[in-house]
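Notes from the pairing session

We agreed to fold both candidates in a single pass and log them together. This is the raw record for the first candidate, unedited. Please don't reformat it; downstream parsing expects exactly this layout.

Candidate A
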Amino acid sequence: MPDQPLLDQVSVVAGATRGAGRGIARMLGEAGATVYCTGRSVSGRPATAGRPETIEETAEMVTAAGGRGIAVRTDHTVEAEVKQLFARVRTEQGRLDLLVNDIWGGDALTEWGAPFWELSTAQGLELLERAVHSHITTSRHGVPLMVERDAGLVVEVTDGDTLGYRGNLFYDLAKNAVIRLAYAMAADLHAYRVAAVALTPGMMRSEAVLDHFGVTEANWRDAIEKDPYFAESETPCYIGRAVAALAADPDIGARSGGLFSSWGLAKEYGFTDVDGRQPDWGSFFPRKVREIIERGTPPSEEDMDLFVVRTRLYQVEDDPLASDEAARLRAYLEHHR
């Protein structure tokens, strides 16, 4: 792959303030792209309580990495602002090669640990507006710039590479909905040679996650003692390199409509995380679950064994090729309920 395979290409990363969006924007810059970094948090006006990151910082990181970063404050739940964003892209660049939908804003709205009939409907609907409706609106006004040229790629960022339940009704709806968005958009876009895919990171060391564990990127391994699953975590740049690899793939149309993972694409395209590692969450997590099952000791109230096993069951229970594994997981949960 050339040093800057996306040189002269134009991208919009919607939701580039922090986390996966920032990592994607940075790595598109590394690949030479011009990146419009959008979000609501700007200098002096943070949109998320307790988080200092801004889109201006992200744009500066893009430029430092070798691309051209352009910060544009945009609330993607406000259609007029989205239309204005793409009108600006059209005027300034005359083209759009890549659109990444990573808008989320649902952390504070997700009520973990409660069944759906106890959830706040108002909070849930607001989550869907932020994390699903915003994606639809953004694609609605961004994709026409690609259709005009018969070329381009839309990337929908999700959480998880299965259609299994994700532990909260509204969170599950949002993360599965964007997978379906990629599939549906791919069908409509097929005649125009514009591709659409869904993509998930593994366990990601976002700014908020690092803060939660009281570590930095420099000493993140210190948190493994608190959470052994952290050992296979990845930086937000790992999914960023996955997006860059997809955008540079001349045969991207063959992948249109599919669901992919950072770890899977790393093996296919041969890239690494920025620390030189190649985390493989897709192998690591099932292996840790097998260790729990084989250990056979009763889970304590402090550990996460039951949660982890149940999560794995959600991932495989509808997969006919994983029926034996699903049976073992059900037996464990039945024995230790």
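Candidate B (folded immediately after A)
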Amino acid sequence: MGMSASQARFLCLTARKNNVEFEGQQINQQRTSLSNESGSYYSELCNMVVPTPPSIDDYTKVSYTFDDGALTNTITSMIAKGGNEYSISYIQQWQDDYSIVSSSTSVVSRKAVGDDYEYRIGSATLRKMDGTFAGNIATEDIQNMDEEAFKEFQSSDAIKNDKYLSTLTQSQFVDLIEQESYYKAMLNEKNGTTEEYYVRYVKDSQTGGYTPFFYKASDIESDANYEEDNLSGSLPCFTIGSSTKTKEVLNQKGIVEKDSTGRYLSITLFDKEDEDKPGITYNLTTNTLTDEEAYNDAMNKYNYEQHQYNQKVQDINSKIEIVQQQDKSLELKLKQLDTEENAINTEMEAVKKVVSKNVENTFKTFNA
């Protein structure tokens, strides 16, 4: 190789080496960027809050109850006043077998009678509880009827065709008005209204007695509830039945007896009006109550959050895996560049020797 060719080759190799070094620098910058990106993902993983499953203990509480005749009393708070004295609050609960309860409704239809309507369920006519009967005969009128007049009253279509009213004696009619006035007060207390009501009495096939069913007059008489004189939907219906009643008693003085573990054994309550009277002692029953619904809701929330957490971890791990693959590819390229640079350096050393030898030979020629 001549002098000029050697120099040209050396310059070419130098340029190539510079390009390889520049490519290496770029790859290192890319790998640094990938490292920062990977570090960011790892940091995100470390900062994620791992969902904690709910503990059944958090939804379980101990309550104390005591029975007072037909009443079951559940203690809601006991505030220590010093010594064994406490200010005690509790909820009384009992079953009221004579109260207003909701009932399933029946299909109501109406029929025009003069300027008014007659309302029916099947063949039974609904009667308004307004203190009067057939022909607007009031209670005092029935009470003052003689035997013959009452028989005539009983023979009227309005009474004769009513399976319940037709069974009543004269005194029972008078009592019924008072009873229905009580029904009306109970209904309005339950519904928070000052309504009028319609009623029908249905015979109980087992007991032989009659059970009343009540409808709000505003519902029965509303034109909006009818299509071609037939009820377009169901109406609220009420009857007499059994319901659970509660009453809260607050801040009653009492003395509590405990065992060595701190568990309450008995409670002595004093009269609120006269605390000097001897108190009544009741044995306490310990109950462990778990709010299953709240616990299940919390568990469902945990399962959802755990699913979200696992999905997020999986997404981040997938991104980290992609970054690692990219870094591996860049690392392979960098090794190839290192190999190429070593080859260039080897060739440059060889060219240097050729150039050096050419220079030496040239100087020898001129010195001869």
